[in-house]
Amino acid sequence: PPEILQTMIEISDQVLDEEDLQIDLDILKQRGVKNFFIDAICQFVIVCKCQMLPHMIEEITQEKWMVQILSMWVVSHSPGEYAPTHMHTQCQVSGVMYIKIPKILSSDKQHLGQGYGPSNADGSIQFVNNVSGNEGSLCTPCIKIYPQVGDFLMFGSHQLHTVYPYYCEEGQKDVERRSISFNATFISKKDYNRQYGEII
Is the dihedral of CA 126, 4, 100, 15 positive or negative? Predict the structure, then answer.
């Protein structure tokens, strides 16, 4: 939503001014955006669980899911910068919200297309299958997504992913690619009660 995007732009501006890429999680509640992230993560968990266990959809959707954001940080890239293939540890759900995307110079690497968006990889985020031997006619081992301002992606934290570099025309203003990433965890209330005792 535009109001969430604008708030996160303002929060990230402040974080970058202070030269600390970590976002204090208390500010999410202060600025009124914490529930947006919690609700989105909760819905993501429910959809994934329903896909995994279609015979338990009613139980999954009626369950109360408890979500905790563990960390959130700003990623500010300049032309030529990238993120090597990696995954996130000590969490269950990761996400990225794109808040600034520059005009990217067209690339001649046409053979690296094979994704949604321009016919090259520059500026994309790519998710990589970490399980080998899948039937290629029914699935794809990797997918590239060319983000736009306002895109909000969530994925299991152990999903391998990489971010490709990009380039802009010489002298172009506003060349920053900025995103906000987070790590979160979740547990059903039933499992929490089983492990830690009854909560209200």
Answer: negative
